[in-house]
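Support request from a user on the community tier.

User writes: "When I paste my structure tokens into the form, the page sometimes reloads and wipes my input. The last time it worked, I copied everything first. Here is what I submitted, just in case something in the input itself triggers the reload:"
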């Protein structure tokens, strides 16, 4: 073989181990190593680390592996926070990575998604907005009950172990008040001799504890999730009962204390139902919404659609700069919150509709007329191509897209650009320090007329109708 001929990478099989250096981080936070040129996504490695890793999944083009030993730590690796039996803080996968590097990776991953997945050249990415607090920023924590050596524990599942729970007294991503609430409920459950639900045999009582905190109001709200069982009244605000083997925390919920969580965002008083979405980092939510308002550039007269509006925080925070606000959201309880939030804050130009974005956008346009500006804030899965087509039909001159996943923003952005929008600018906002999660705000501006791009099925239907019309004309 000549010296210049490329060598074929040797595929590693499931169960094999290798030693290699982590070169960079992939979207989602896993390290990338290339032993023998073969790409391996490694859980638990940071750039510059030399790790020993075991392959858990093997494909022709790449493999997945778990780091089992840190052979040589990367220069500048930070000490992990030892919380319990040498376990690092769960949920803080990037805690050993210097914060400036975390920000640089997040910025690079937004750029990479838009150029590589969205195939959008020359994207104008404004510098990432750093978080105010690098620790203790979470306003919501979902704990799981489990048992360790016959003792009831309350904490988190270690990575990849859905049936084990690690007891966590002090989660450094959440506040002392949240940890205190967790410790009180665990002490009560132990004193009552209650057991944890066992996901293997589906027996046992206690499943989850959800703690939410109003960071500005100081309110801490606790919700206990259990199987159907008899036990003394728990010291919590809400009690959810789950029948059957579901791992979900949503179900029929009884009110034992405060039904709503109260929070302040800017100068707005906000109430939240327990199943309504709220940004997990209150302080950075204000930065995110402030950036969305800057990108929206309202002047006091515009009709604004706030799509995927939750309890209405984005639309309500912009209502004083808009002519009219129309919010759309799928969870009816969140829409009830949004309506009450508008009233409580004396906002009279905002209306809210409970609907699925897929089916609800055309009726919203019929009811409200076309918007000038749209804000859209979907879950991590982003928008389906069909929902983007409905969004394009709004013919808004500006769309401000708030995304918690640049890899789903990218194809949506490409579809908007194809329909005549320019991606004017994008800015990442770090809502989740110590984790690989990335939030960003993107501004799209309509250049000229909307070019409506049909789906293949829409095109077929139109062609069928045109052929039928042509045949009718020929008959006449
Ligand atoms: C990322 S949250 C944003 C909520 C709100 N904009 C905020 O900042 O608090 C996404 C919201 O979309 C809602 N949602 C999910 N799927 C939806 C759909 N198909 N149609 C309308 N809303 C949907 C969720 O209930 C959730 O409230």
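"...and here is what came back when it finally went through:"
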């Amino acid at each position: 073989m000549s010296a210049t001929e490329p060598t074929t990478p040797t595929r590693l099989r499931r169960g094999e181990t290798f030693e290699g250096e982590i070169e960079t981080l992939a979207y989602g936070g896993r390290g990338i190593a290339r032993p023998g040129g073969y790409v391996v996504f490694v859980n638990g490695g940071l750039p510059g680390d030399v790790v020993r890793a075991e392959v858990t999944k093997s494909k022709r083009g790449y493999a997945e592996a778990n780091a089992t030993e840190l052979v040589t730590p990367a220069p500048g690796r930070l000490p992990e926070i030892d919380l319990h039996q040498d376990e690092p803080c769960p949920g803080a996968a990037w805690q050993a990575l210097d914060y400036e590097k975390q920000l640089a990776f997040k910025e690079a991953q937004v750029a990479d998604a838009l150029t590589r997945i969205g195939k959008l050249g020359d994207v104008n990415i404004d510098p990432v907005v750093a978080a105010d607090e690098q620790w203790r920023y979470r306003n919501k924590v979902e704990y799981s009950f489990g048992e360790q050596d016959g003792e009831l524990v309350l904490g988190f599942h270690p990575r990849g172990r859905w049936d084990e729970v690690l007891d966590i007294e002090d989660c450094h991503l959440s506040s002392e008040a949240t940890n205190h609430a967790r410790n009180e409920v665990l002490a009560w459950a132990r004193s009552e001799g209650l057991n944890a639900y066992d996901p293997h045999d589906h027996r046992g009582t206690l499943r989850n504890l959800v703690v939410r905190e109003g960071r500005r109001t100081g309110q801490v709200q606790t919700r206990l999730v259990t199987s159907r069982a008899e036990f003394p009244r728990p010291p919590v605000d809400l009690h959810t009962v789950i029948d059957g083997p579901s791992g979900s925390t949503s179900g029929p919920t009884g009110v034992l204390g405060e039904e709503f969580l109260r929070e302040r965002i800017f100068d707005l008083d906000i109430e939240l139902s327990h199943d309504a979405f709220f940004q997990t980092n209150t302080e950075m939510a204000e930065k995110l919404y402030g950036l969305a308002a800057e990108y929206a550039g309202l002047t006091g007269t515009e009709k604004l659609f706030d799509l995927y509006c939750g309890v209405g925080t984005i639309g309500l925070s912009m209502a004083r700069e808009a002519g009219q606000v129309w919010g759309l959201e799928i969870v009816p309880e969140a829409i009830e919150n949004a309506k009450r939030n508008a009233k409580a804050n004396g906002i009279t130009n905002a209306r809210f509709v409970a609907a699925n974005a897929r089916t609800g956008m055309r009726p919203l346009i019929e009811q409200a007329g076309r918007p000038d500006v749209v804000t859209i804030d979907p879950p991590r899965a982003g928008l389906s191509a069909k929902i983007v087509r409905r969004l394009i039909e709004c013919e808004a001159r500006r769309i401000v897209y708030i995304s918690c996943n640049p890899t789903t923003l990218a194809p949506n952005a490409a579809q908007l650009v194809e329909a005549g929008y320019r991606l004017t600018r994008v800015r990442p906002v770090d809502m989740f320090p110590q984790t690989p999660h990335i939030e960003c705000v993107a501004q799209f501006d309509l250049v000229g007329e909307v070019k409506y791009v049909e789906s293949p099925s829409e095109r077929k239907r139109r062609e069928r109708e045109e052929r039928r019309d042509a045949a009718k004309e020929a008959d006449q």
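Agent notes: The reload is a front-end session timeout and is unrelated to the input. The chain is about 25% helix and 25% strand. The CA atoms of residues 104 and 128 lie 8 Å apart. Escalated to web team.
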